[in-house]
Predict the 3D structure of the following.
Amino acid sequence: MSFFVDPSWKELLELNRLSSFDQVWACQAAWIETPNDDRGGWSGVGRVALATPEGGEVGVYLKRQQNHARRTWRHLYRGELTFAREFQIIRHLQRHGVMTPTPVLFAERRVHGNQQAVLMTAELAGYRSLEDISTQISALPLSRQRILLRAVARTVRAMHVAGIQPRSLYAKHLFVKPRGEDYEVVLIDFEKSRRSFLPLLPVFFDLVTLNYRTGYWSRSSRLYFFKQYYAAEKLDYWQKLLWRLIARRSQKKRKRVGN
């Protein structure tokens, strides 16, 4: 069994009797969305309010899964638990300076023939998803819109430079918070992520996904985002070609899903 606890959270977890796998596994946390029951097992997430010594509380998200694995070239037989992959990706991105939820605890074990994993992350207090604020973006002054788009674009770029392809780059997985004149951007949900050693592929597929799922962005905003992704005032020939391919693919996907 592997077991990780962030040292700064150890005392608080002990106070809430969540310092062992059995305690975390048995924790009462209502699912915040319907658990997944594919891949031959199940996987779900709930919110837990941890009591503090001062009488307050701190929110965390607790993910639990059993036999919910995906096969990789390193794990051809039993597969790798998706939360194990997510934990590894989070740690990798943090080493590369990309903001993610803070991993509080991760553990995995095999019991009675079942593979089990738990992953606890700190709640993103003060942040809202890009999807939640979609209707408010157009009401912002153009200068603020561009600051937000630039912050998101550069965070996505930093993730790709770190060699990570989330494969589900949705607006609901990008959390933002104003910080002075700028915005902080945090990426979440890396359960489907993978390492990529071919730079162009993750750029194309991830930006197509984000592009066609942000129908509230204007065309000029999309182009500005793409320029900021490459930190370019003017796109070169290959960047223009990639932009056209992304726009064309996004339009086809919107028509397919009726957006």
Remarks:
- DSSP finds eight helices and twelve strands in the chain.
- The longest helix spans residues 237-257.
- The chain has two domains: 2-122, 128-257.
